[in-house]
Hints:
Layout: E1 2-6, H1 11-23, E2 26-31, E3 42-45, E4 59-65, H2 71-80, E5 83-90, H3 118-133, E6 138-141, E7 144-146, H4 155-163, E8 168-171, E9 177-178, E10 180-182, H5 183-196, E11 202-204, E12 211-212, H6 213-223, E13 230-233, H7 255-260, H8 267-281, H9 290-295
Parallel strand pairs: 1-2, 1-4, 2-3, 4-5, 5-6, 6-11, 7-10, 8-13
Antiparallel strand pairs: 9-12
Helix pairs in contact: 1-5, 2-3, 4-6, 6-8
Amino acid sequence: MRILVTGGTVFVSRAVAEWFVQRGDTVYVLNRDTRSQAEGVELIRADRHLLGEKLRQYCFDAVLDMTAYTAQDVSDLLDALGDFGQYALLSSSAVYPETNPQPFREDQMLGANTFWGDYGSNKIGAESTLLRRVPAAYILRPPYLCGAGNNLYREAFVFECAERGLPFCVPGDGSLPLQFCHIGDLCRLLEIIVTKRPQQHILNTGDPQTVSAADWVRICYAAAEMPCILRYLPREIPVRAYFPFRDYAYRLDVAAQTALLPELTPLEDSMREAYAWWQVHRETVVRKPYLDYLAQLDLR
């Protein structure tokens, strides 16, 4: 198959590109060539907003759009494409308003989410633009993504604290629920979409179970083979100043995904993969000043 992956150099889009290369497909990546390319891909060097006629000559069996955040992102790519078969968009669980009944289902109303702000609203715009122009497109709505290649300062922050022998601070009593989607499971679901064309076109993705913030930290410390000491901070202290997730409890209904992909990667395995990757690529992670903030607090 001839597959176009937008991006292809960082975390999700790179993992997707590498997945389909390993499958034996001809994989084209669309990016500005400012980072190293995955092995085995065909580079189309361009800005997705300045494509001109660069894509018109190609005929893709599938377009896997992993880097669209706004309606304009989708429109500019669609305007530039020649012939293509399927289109799959990576969206987000942020499209569901927090007032919806939980767990969030794919058939629920979309709307602004107070916790996610413009990010969620822009993803709604991307989805609606795509479905207006490509009604048969597929849309994936993951929660937090995890696994090898994650260049966000989430598990990497925990690994850093573990290696330095520091206690880790969690909000409140540590019970904040977190839901994850392993990057390899996302790739496997995309393969099912490309090869089997499932009937349902909008899919929540991820593990059906949540894990508490405290248990997630323990799993990360265990992946680094370090003892874990937790500190529980009152919620009066701004959570996002020291903790890598929003103070927002939600859960997705992933029954439709489970019917297609019943066996998922355990979170413990995902964190071990993430730690092994981080040990080699830690300089690529975008750090945040969480420790600097905590240093200003009197935590005795």
